[in-house]
Amino acid sequence: MPEASASVPTSAQELDELPLPTRLSDVKGWFHPADQVLFDWFLSRQLRLGEPGDLLELGAYLGKSAIFMGGYLRPGEAFTVCDLFDSPAPDDANSKEMNRSYATLTRRAFEANYLSFHDELPDIVQAPSSGITAHVRADSCRFVHIDASHLYEHVHADIAAAQRLLVRDGVVVLDDFRAEHCPGVAAATWGAVATTGLKPLCITATKFYGTWGAYDETREALGAFLAGRGDMWHGAEEVAGHPMIRISGAKAEVPAQPVSRHASAVRPGAAVQPPPNKPVQRAGDNRRPKGRGLASLLGRRS
Ligand SMILES: C[S@@+](CC[C@H](N)C(=O)[O-])C[C@H]1O[C@@H](n2cnc3c(N)ncnc32)[C@H](O)[C@@H]1O
Fold it and tell me: What proportion of the chain, given as a percentage, has pLDDT over 70?
């Protein structure tokens, strides 16, 4: 179940400090070009094949990957974003992790970033990801991005939640599954491959992509797509009986980017390419959004 409506800034100073990104690369976060290519491929393929389902992100930070994912929503589908933002963490280890890495994060900054690219906010659950199954229906999601706490117990629980929330052929993505500073993600990820039937479709330097559903067809289609790209190397790697694809994408070119309503402030007349289901925004078009949008976020200015 979505949380209550967007919080609003209360002082002129807070309004001045809200970010106004003119492009996705202005949004602070961790979402590399190779992963943008893969998110685009998986999400566009689901749209093309008419695979139904909602989107879910656990761990949004300032919205970089969430803004990107929000471009692949069909009418009637829900996008839920779960993050602690400026709330306390549920345990000491998680609290330490938050203080170390995300000390300046606020929900308002996330909302201002998101609304720079989309007319409406996603459904925001400001709470530990451990409670996500109380907010999202079982068997309802086609794509789940797990990027919240990087501690083993949390990631293990997030994967179990994803298995429950995904539709049969849904895709789960795990961030930082092999980084030296977060061994818990690696343990939880490969543990799920070994014990829950999670099948590894592909890996990049930073993310693991897997499914509990249809495997061969998806992996072969991905291989064919990658074979046509000169900017990304790929090869096969057998893991636990699965011919997973290993991808090196250091030189990957970013796919079509979400368009910021502030873009014209910087590059008047620049042509910008929207993601598949987004209308092109013309330079100079700085319309205010509707609904749970920027207008309502800034609405109580006086
Ligand atoms: C690596 S950042 C997410 C990066 C983001 N996906 C991007 O593209 O830039 C991790 C986020 O997880 C959140 N987080 C940490 N522990 C959490 C928990 N137990 N439940 C929910 N969110 C959590 C942090 O507040 C932080 O915003």
Answer: 82
Helix (H, G, I), strand (E, B) or coil at 248: strand
β-bridge pairing 207-211 and 141-146: unpaired
Report CA(243)–ligand 1 centroid distance (Å). Answer: 30
CA 212 – ligand 1 centroid, Å: 24
Give how far Cα 148 sits from Cα of 23, 60, 73, 170, 285, Å. 24, 7, 21, 19, 35
- Residue 29 one-letter amino acid: G
Q: How confident is the model at residue 287 (pLDDT cuts 50, 70, 90)?
A: very low
Give the distance (Å) from ligand 1 centre to CA of residue 59.
3
pLDDT tens digit string along 256-281?
Answer: 999 999 997 655 444 445 555 543 33
Other beta carbons within 10 angstroms of residue 208's beta carbon come to 25
Domain boundaries, the chain: 17-283
CA dihedral 229, 275, 217, 236 (to 10 degrees): 40
What the block records as the tokens of 72 is 């692949």
Topology given in CATH for the domain delimited by 17-283? Rossmann fold (3.40.50)
Ligand 1 nearest atom to the CA of residue 149, by list position? 16
Q: Show the tokens assigned to 137.
A: 């229906």
Single pTM value for the model: 0.87
With 0-12 CB in 10 A as exposed, 13-18 as middle and 19+ as buried, what is 268? Answer: exposed
